[in-house]
Write a structure and sequence with these properties.
With about 160 residues, this protein is mainly alpha-helical. The protein contains 8 helices and no strands.
Length: about 160
């Protein structure tokens, strides 16, 4: 049967680690006494010994400073994007958003679409440029249906197509 995960408090960990540092009992005896795995006791003991100097004001942990190069790179990326979005984006609808795509802008069209929350595929088709298919369809005259092929509602023989009435 599987045991549920247990979370031990800091006081319990300190008690187990101090008992391990004393060396009166073996790891197996400590593990049986406290009900934890010997590897866990070894880890807690190692943590205690690493940080024992901090108790007496040895070293203080300073918060990690942010990486300025990464932040400057992000600012460099966002500044032109803000310039691109400087228009009336908040009022713009779908057609207005499509009209805002500038194919000559330094920012790639795909990124512009991403910033405007548009699908890249919506910008591929440009209005007014007919495709080959639409040109062929507009050149073809409308065909009139053949009256002999129109079904009048009479039952048909499925093999010969002749009316049974």
């Amino acid at each position: 049967m599987k045991r549920t995960r247990r979370n031990h408090g800091a006081a319990f960990k300190a008690q187990v680690a101090l008992a391990a540092c004393k060396g009166d009992k073996t790891l197996a005896e400590l593990a049986e006494h406290f009900g934890v795995h010997p590897t866990q006791i070894t880890d807690w003991k190692r943590h205690l010994l690493e940080r024992v100097a901090d108790v007496f004001g040895g070293t203080t942990h300073k918060p990690d400073a942010p990486d300025l190069k990464v932040l400057h790179a992000k600012i460099g990326q966002l500044a032109p994007e803000n310039d691109f979005l400087d228009g009336a984006l908040t009022k713009a609808g779908l057609l207005e958003c499509k009209a805002m795509i500038d194919r000559t802008h330094a920012r790639p069209v795909g990124r512009q679409c991403q910033l405007l929350a548009l699908s890249r595929s919506t910008t591929i088709y440009q209005r007014g440029s007919p495709t080959r298919r639409t040109c062929r369809q507009s050149e073809r005259p409308l065909a009139r249906p053949d009256p002999s092929l129109i079904w009048t509602g009479e039952p048909l023989d499925t093999h010969s197509g002749i009316s049974l009435v």
